[in-house]
Amino acid sequence: MHLRHRHHTILLFLTTLACLSACKDKQDQDALFEQISSKDSGVEFVNKVENTEDFNIFSYRNFYNGGGAAIGDVNNDGLSDIYLTSNMGENKLFLNKGNFKFEDITQQAGVAGTGFWSTGVVMVDINADGLLDIFVCNAGYDKDKKPVKELFINQGNQNGVPTFVEKAAEYGLDEDGYTTHAAFFDYDLDGDLDCYILNNSFMPVNTLNYSNNRELYAEDWPVRDFLKGGGDKLFRNDNGKFVDVTRQANIYGSLIGFGLGITVGDVNGDNWPDLYVSNDFFERDYLYINQKDGTFKEEIENWISHMSHASMGADMADINNDGYPEIFTTEMLPGDETRLKTTTLFENYNVYQLKQERGFYHQYMQNCLQLNNKDKTFSEIAFYSGVAATDWSWGALMFDMDNDGYRDIYVCNGIYKDVTDQDFIDFFADEVVQKMALTGQKEQINEVLNKMPSNPLVNKAFRNRGDLTFEDAGMKWGFTTPSFSNGAAYGDLDNDGDLDLVINNVNQEAMLYKNHSTEKNGNHHLTIQLKGKGQNTFAIGSQVSVYQGKEQKKFQLIPSRGFQSSVDYKMVFGLGQDTKIDSIVVIWPDRTKTVQMQAAIDTTLLISWETAGQTLAGNIFDINAPKNILLHEIPSGMEQHKEDNFIDFYQENLTFHMLSREGPKAAVADVNGDKREDVYVGGATGQGGQLYLQTAAGTFSRSDRATFDRDTMYEDTAVLFFDADKDGDQDLFVGSGGNEQPLNSRFMINRLYINDGKGHFTLNESAIPLNGFNTSVAVAMDYNNDGNLDLFVGSRSVPGKYGVPPRHFLYRNDGRGNFSDVSNDVSPDLQRLGMVTDATLANVTGDATPELVIVGEWRNPIIFEIRNGKFTSVSSSLNFYSGWWNCVQADDVDGDGDQDLILGNRGENFYFSGNREQPSKLWISDFDQNGTVEKIITRRINDKDMPVPMKKDLTGQIPSLKKKNLKHVDYAQKSIQELFTPEVMKKAIAMEGSYFQSAVALNDGNGQFRMLPLPREVQFSCVCGIWCGDLNQDGKNDLILAGNDDGFIPQFSKLDASFGHVLINRGDGTYDRIDNRNSGFSVRGDVKSIKEIRIKGNPFVLATVNNQKPRLYQLK
């Protein structure tokens, strides 16, 4: 029996192995890309890097940055060839012999190079003879040799093999900086190719002390000469000789620039080339806008709200086929939980704030995908799109990998030694130091490196779904080989109409992938080759658009892309299943145009510059200028809100979200009886609130300064006009809040200002009972039908204790403006609301009286029915939608006669998310029982509640965890339930986040609502202000929304991708979004409220913005 059982087990095991093998074979057969072995292809190349005592990862921080790749047809036989650079060995050129067979012709061609440390490579016809030359960048540090660049000039074919002669010095391109990459383009449109040299500073970062010496050029630094090899350079081509014009062109050439990526493209639509420079880990990136006079202007802070911290590779291309380019940069944020918690160290807020003060702007550890808003701004949407985290990433390439008509994203990642492995740093590094202290002997470099982890990673391939989101399709597409990849280039190596891929790895064979899209998915293509003229024979800088229906597939011919690499000059446009091309437009480098109507699909089309007409292409921003703008901004004449400098994170450990910056809020009413609406705007701590009276001229004049300036010690977080004392005028309730003062502080009391009927206010200090919480909202209602307006006052938080449920209040009015707290008598359920952010009265049940609808953070919207002076919660399908709700408005969205709800949420462009099956959670408890309440966020991974804080942050706050002596790798595997005992967890309060989209809740009656997400652009950030009204006079109420929130720790980046939204109601609960440039509504910053106000009888909306002046817009 026992033997029979063993025999059965062995058979089962073998059967399983066979099934697994068959499944893998099937997967390989179905894969879009096939990895071609070096034995079959002949592309035998390893970028071998070995540490030595004199030169290693500790002496040269870019030791594992790897080499580049270039694709181009160097012998003009119609087949694209491959060049790969090596750091410590010979570079190699592989001649394409057809059918994915390549021959190593390095020696015959004379292009092995003599540089010690080759990095980037570009194939470019520098002398306009129709033959591609090869420009090789060099870096590294060799005390006996400068890393001069090498320019291999193509001499033509000898016996079918091209030969080259090195002539960098002759052309003036033997620059000797520590160069990462270079780009050739015609920046001054004089007809020849100029050159941008991207250098990486050799300066030790710890010597810079966060000094911003951006405008100090490398040669002017008071440091030793070998350190002056940094600083970017721009060279102008003057009749074949390259001249350094860095200073006169306004290009930064400082040693604080750690350049890792140079990307060329037309960012502002004027058909002149602009530049995006990716800088590593210290200096911010640069966006140079071409001024068309031989100079550039660095404008990144005008265009982009935040960027990658350690920007590496980058690319620029149109991902949504609207004709405007996006920008993608790579960073080091891992997507895998274990990698995240063992290799990542986020910047703390102290450093982040210091860098803001020093002018280094907003930099975060994440890939960034900058979506072009077509109005000279970008919205960063990488988390929304699903491409924010690809680990230690280098090459970034945006190309259509499956020919479906949308550009996908390929990312090379991996570093040969995990130099940021936290366990290595914490344990082994300490051990080395102790050993050296005891023995006095220096540890051998190889002994140290052998203990440093080395983990190859699988490169990432993201399939563009066509809706600004991407699917991680790498494994499915055939990218299954773990590697340490750096440079990569794409090109159609077999002329079959799809783009193949070559990848340069560290200490591993280069990888060559054949694309099988053409034969496997049935998508069509069009290959376009351009024939240039004059000194630009390959027409570098040309912009090609293929029009199909409403879509414009656009690409700019710039070979330097990704990381240290150069792509093929043949442009392959995927067409999907569409068999018709309406037209093709080429905008040549001199801005002339060629227009070709229709073209055959699945062919190669050669277009010559000579076919261009005389008409110059216009600026796309001007051509597509809006015509029927719905809103027009006018100056508000109001003062700037001035946020105080309090930082929650310094006072409250483990908190991740600042609640001290919730203002300003605004309220609108006619306070002086002149039939004109006036405005009160709340002030921050140290700034009094402002009452603005509307004049007959439609302007605003500040009033009652003395009254409100006496109360500058308060932070105004909720404002409401209502008639508190039944005298027929509008009194003013102002809620106090913030996070700086302790619970029940006298600076946290709510205030009631009584109106004398003429718009003059007096504080009634005894009208409102002591509150002491962080007030968020006040709603006036007559809950007991006695004819007096009572108040519901919701609280955002307990000051200094994020997540701890605060009290909420129902104040009964005695009719003379004196209020008493009746919360516990009228509705004990009010105390179970958690962190309330907003509330409104709305008749959502269809009875005779309105209900109170309340929203909050880490909770679902809740409805309270008000009957016989009591509040009772209504059972509702909204109970299943817990989120970070910021605001709520009621309106009949779908015209069926009942009240629906418009709900502003956090959005989906964030570090973590959640759904009903896999919710994120906030746990509140005294986890180490030391009298201090902690809060821990978890996200659901593999059915476990995994803590979001890093080990250092959590153990720093909860010392009991330190005693467990957890390694980072151990911590990365543990759920919160495994970190703490069941007894501790039973005492914890757990709140969930399972739905983060801003949405419309359509009322189906009987407490049932259908949740319809608002348009995708709304989900790029939070919504904190809502206006409902008919913008286009079609009888249906439309929406104006705005938000943003920059109050997060650096780990979470910030919500800043919204510039406001105008949504036109379709009448069925869905909306069409109008671009900001067409709507006229665009607000940059953290909008806290939107209010309607009538000025001289005309409707306007007023948007209040944290730390800015209020913005006023007239409606059409």
Describe this structure in words.
It is a single chain. This protein has 1116 residues and is mainly β. 13% of the residues lie in helices and 35% in strands. It has 22 helices and 74 strands. The strands form 20 sheets. Strands 55, 56, 57, 58 and 59 form a five-stranded antiparallel sheet that branches. A four-stranded antiparallel sheet has the order 1-32-31-30. Strands 2-3-4-5 form a four-stranded antiparallel sheet. The longest helix is centred in the N-terminal third of the chain and has 29 residues, at 2-30. The chain is globular. The protein starts with a helix and ends with a strand.
Could you list some keywords that capture this structure?
mainly beta, four-stranded antiparallel beta sheet, 1116 residues, five-stranded antiparallel beta sheet, single chain, globular
> Gyration radius, to the nearest Å?
32 Å
Fraction in beta strands: 25-35%
The structural class is mainly beta
Low-confidence stretches: 1-23
Number of separate helices? 22
Which descriptor suits the 3D outline?
Answer: globular
Number of beta strands: 74
Helix content: 10-25%
Distance between the termini: 88 Å
| Largest sheet, strands/sense/barrel | 5 strands, antiparallel
Average pLDDT, all residues: 94
Topology:
Blueprint: H1 2-30, E1 33-36, H2 38-41, E2 69-72, E3 81-84, E4 92-98, E5 101-104, H3 106-109, E6 118-124, E7 133-138, E8 150-158, E9 161-166, H4 168-171, E10 179-185, E11 194-199, E12 233-238, E13 241-244, E14 259-265, E15 274-279, E16 286-290, E17 296-298, H5 300-303, E18 307-308, E19 314-317, E20 326-329, H6 337-343, H7 349-357, E21 363-364, E22 368-372, E23 378-380, H8 382-385, E24 393-399, E25 408-413, H9 422-439, H10 445-450, E26 457-458, E27 460-464, E28 470-472, H11 474-477, E29 482-483, E30 485-491, E31 500-505, E32 511-515, H12 517-520, E33 524-531, E34 543-548, E35 551-556, E36 560-561, E37 565-566, E38 571-576, E39 583-587, E40 593-597, E41 604-608, H13 620-623, E42 631-634, H14 648-651, E43 666-669, E44 678-681, E45 690-694, E46 700-703, H15 705-709, E47 716-722, E48 731-736, E49 751-755, E50 761-764, E51 774-781, E52 790-797, E53 809-813, E54 819-821, H16 823-826, E55 835-842, E56 851-859, E57 862-867, E58 870-874, E59 883-884, E60 887-891, E61 900-904, E62 920-925, E63 934-941, E64 944-947, ...
Parallel strand pairs: 18-21, 33-41
Antiparallel strand pairs: 1-32, 2-3, 3-4, 4-5, 6-7, 7-8, 8-9, 10-11, 11-12, 12-13, 14-15, 15-16, 16-17, 19-20, 20-22, 22-23, 24-25, 25-27, 26-29, 27-28, 30-31, 31-32, 33-38, 34-35, 34-39, 36-37, 39-40, 42-74, 43-44, 44-45, 45-46, 47-48, 48-49, 49-50, 51-52, 52-53, 53-54, 55-56, 56-57, 56-59, ...
